[in-house]
Structure formats: structure tokens, C-alpha cells
Amino acid sequence: MNRNRKKTEKPESPRRLEDRAAGPTTVIAADSRCRGDIEGKEGVRISGRLTGKISSRGLVWIEETGEVRGDIQAPYIIIEGRLQGEVVQARHVEIRANAVMRGNIRTDIIAIADGGLFEGDINLPDENSRPHTFQERRRSRKSDPDPSASE
Question: Is 80 exposed, middle or buried (0-12, 13-18, 19+ CB in 10 A)?
Fold first, then answer.
């Protein structure tokens, strides 16, 4: 018996969707407006307004101040702001508290936080899949107390 044999361990997949954001990211900053389509391999982060389609192989994150009017195709999508359009195809979609999503979603996994608003149809390809709900436990970056304020 070989006792020195090493076990092969599977690398743990990131637990939170935002941990899947790696590498360069296209950013539309708050107070910015953009018209046109975005296509790319990397992630997309929207804090401003975008009118157009997004096609990405990375994480698409619509922040609290973000607003998108158009369809999205990406493996991972976080909605904290507003989306009016279709999620054409995704592996995992999260609609967080205070988010507003109007349109249809086709995804393998969907989670909707208490307080998140969704109007539309959900298409889950696996008959055993079902939407998950959750309570937002993370604090928004905006609500994090300023450590210098107490000094």
C-alpha cells in the first residue's frame, strides 16, 4: 500500500458571483451614459447607463446606480440596479435586494433576494431547477461605515 500517495483535490469554485470577476473589466462609470453594444471576453461592470446589448464571457455586474436597456448574454450576471431587457443565456443570475429587472431570463440557476423586483418569465432548462430566494446579508459598499468618521 502506498501511503505517500497524494489526494487530488478539486479547486474550489468561487462561492460568491463577484469572486468570479477576474482580469480586466469594461466599466461604465456612474454619471456616464453610453449607447451601443459591448462584446468581449472579459467582465463588464455598469454603474452608469447603457442602452445596447452586452455579450460577455465574464461576469456582468449592474451596480446599484447602474441601468441597462438591452439584452445580456453572459455566464454570470449580478443585478443590483435596473435591467430592462432579456437575459438571453446565463449559467447563474442573481437579482439582489433593491434591484429591478423587467424582461425574461433563461438561466441554469437564479437567485432573487428579498426586496428584489422581477417582472417577466424565467426559463430554467433543467426540470429539477427552481428559483432560489435569499436575504441580503452583505452590506453594500455605500453603507459601510467610514472608519475615519469615528475619530
Answer: buried
